[in-house]
Every structure is written in C-alpha cells, then in structure tokens.
Amino acid sequence: MLLPSIPYLIHGVLVIAQYFVLEVWRDYGAKMDAVVYIVDATRANEQFLRPRRDLNDLLSDEAFANLPFLILCTTQSFDYPEEELCSLLNLTNVTTGKDLLELAIANVHPLEVFVAEKYNTKEYLRGFRWLSHYIK
Fold first, then answer.
1. In what helix (H) or strand (E) does residue 54 lie, and over which residues does it extend?
2. Would you name any one GO CC term (predicted)?
3. What is the number of domains present in the chain?
4. Burial track 23-50 (b if 16+ CB lie within 10 A, e otherwise)
5. How many CB atoms are closer than 10 A to CB 57?
6. 83: domain range?
7. pTM above 0.70, yes or no
8. In CATH, what number is assigned to the domain containing residue 69?
9. Among 37, 46, 48, which Cα is nearest to 14's?
10. Has residue 2 got a pLDDT over 60?
11. Cα–Cα distance for residue pair 59/112, rounded to 1 Å
C-alpha cells in the first residue's frame, strides 16, 4: 500500500478523489498544505467532464490560490499520454513542470500531472516526492 510508506506527506493534505463530496472545499482550504486530485483515466473521454469542472473550480477558488496541486491520473497501461490528459482536463499550459520551482521567483503555485498505471507505485511516489518539495 502506498500511504504507509510516506505518512509524513499525508498530514495536512486533503486528498480529493473524483467522487468525494467536493462541497467541503472551502472549509478545509485554509488548513491544507497541498491538494492531491486523483483522476481515473481508465474511463472514456466523456468521463473527464466532471474532473475538468472540479479542477477548474478548485484552481479558480481563492482558498486554494497558494496551494500546490498534484494531479494523479491512473490508467490501465498508459492509455492516454500526459499531454492528452492535460488537454482533456483543460490543463494545457497550466502545469508548472516536474522541475522544482523557486516559488518566490516564479510567483505561481506548483501544479503538475503525473500519469501512473493503477498498480505501479513508482509514478505515484515520484508525484509525492515532487509535492513534498512544496509542503512547508
């Protein structure tokens, strides 16, 4: 299981999954250190409408303006390339890159998409390592 191997990252992070009751966002925004959003990319293209709307709402909400975003997309066998997933989620030209940012200089909040096969933990860990650099 992934979470026990990185317990220090989970404290203070609200994990929002596709079917989570998203109406509680604002209640937790000020208390969070980061947002982890999980997208089930094993579904058909039309299934991306809900995650696209949710992510747009989160990214435009002031409560989340300074939080880093890790977006994990699970696939069967890399069904979608990362660029296509970014397009389907309306995140083209929004991600900040997998290289680490100097936040004071960049004046942006980090946002990155990591695509992983469902049972391959390497890419999940890579995403959480990336995120760990931005959690205070």
1. helix 49-60
2. endoplasmic reticulum
3. 1
4. eebeeebeebebbbbbbbbeeeeeebee
5. 12
6. 3-132
7. yes
8. 3.40.50.300
9. 37
10. no
11. 12
Backbone φ, ψ for residue 80 (5° rounding):
-120, 135
Residue position matching structure tokens 């303006």: 65
Give every CB contact of residue 34 below 8 A, 6+ residues apart in sequence.
12, 13, 67, 68, 69, 70, 131, 134, 135
- On the CB side of 6, CA atoms within 13 Å amount to 18
Say whether pLDDT at 18 is over 60: no
The whole-angstrom separation of Cα 97 and Cα 111 is: 8
Which tens digits make up the pLDDT trace of 69-112?
A: 999 888 876 667 888 888 888 898 888 888 876 665 556 778 99
Residue 18 bridge partners (DSSP): none
DSSP calls for 72-133: EEEESSS-S-HHHHHHHTT-TTT---SSPP-HHHH-S--EEEEEEETT-HHHHHHHHHHHHT
pLDDT tens track for 60-80: 888 888 889 999 888 876 667
Average pLDDT for the chain: 75
pLDDT above 80: residue 123: yes
pLDDT score recorded for residue 23:
60
